Amino acid sequence: VLSRSLVYKGCEYPMTGVFPVSTHLCDRPQGLGYIDATVTLENPYHPVGSVIKGHEFHYSKCVVDAGAHPAFGLRMDRGFGMGAKSDGLIRNNVFASYTHLFALGEPHWAVNLVLAARRHRAERIPHPSDNSRHNWA
Fold first, then answer.
1. What is the rounded CA–CA span in Å between residue 117 and residue 55?
2. Residue (of 75, 70, 91, 92) closest to 40 by Cα position
3. DSSP characters for 8-33?
4. Phi-psi category of 32—alpha, beta or left, where left has phi over 0 and alpha has psi -120 to 50?
5. Is 87 exposed, middle or buried (0-12, 13-18, 19+ CB in 10 A)?
6. Does the N-terminal or the C-terminal CB of the chain have fewer CB atoms within 10 Å?
7. Distance (Å, rounded) from C-alpha 67 to C-alpha 56?
8. How many of the other CB atoms lie within 10 Å of CB of 33?
């Protein structure tokens, strides 16, 4: 959904275009099994250098648009990810990956998700005590 397009049986369908990749659906699994990945880029959810454990199961692969250089935040030490041993596309607060986390093995993830949501809310919705910009009466 977050790619520029979805390619299926030779036909290309437009998607949201958040990331400069096209998602190609395949007849055979492109990633199947347990993964270990190292976080390589700053993001709201996982500390750089941490090792993520999880699982992947997908019948698609992501192809980076010509000339594009999307930010992949995971180096796949075991597994396939989105391709070229990379996974975890990052843009602002979005962390999109094929990796299904083993949440109990990533205790920082849930806390950081809540903190990111709170930061986002604080940026979007003024607090009622902030009368300098809004009349809350």
1. 25
2. 75
3. ETTEEEE---SSSEEEEE-SS-SEEE
4. beta
5. buried
6. C
7. 27
8. 11
User: What string of DSSP letters covers 71-101?
Assistant: EEEEEEEES-TTBTTEEEEEETTEEE-S-EE
CA distances from 20 to 2, 78, 93, 96 (A): 9, 25, 16, 13
User: Of 55, 49, 63, 64, which is closest to residue 108 (Cα–Cα)?
Assistant: 49
What is the DSSP secondary structure assignment for residue 40, as one 8-state letter?
A: -
Distance of CA 87 to the CA centre of its chain: 8
- Tokens matching residue 127: 């607090």
CB 96 within 8 A of CB 88: yes
The answer to whether 33 touches 56, Cβ cutoff 8 Å, is: yes
Both structure tokens of 66: 């010509």
Whether this prediction's pTM lies above 0.70 is answered by yes
Cα 98 versus chain centre, distance: 8
For 78-125, write each residue's pLDDT tens digit.
999 998 899 999 999 899 999 998 888 888 988 999 999 999 888 887
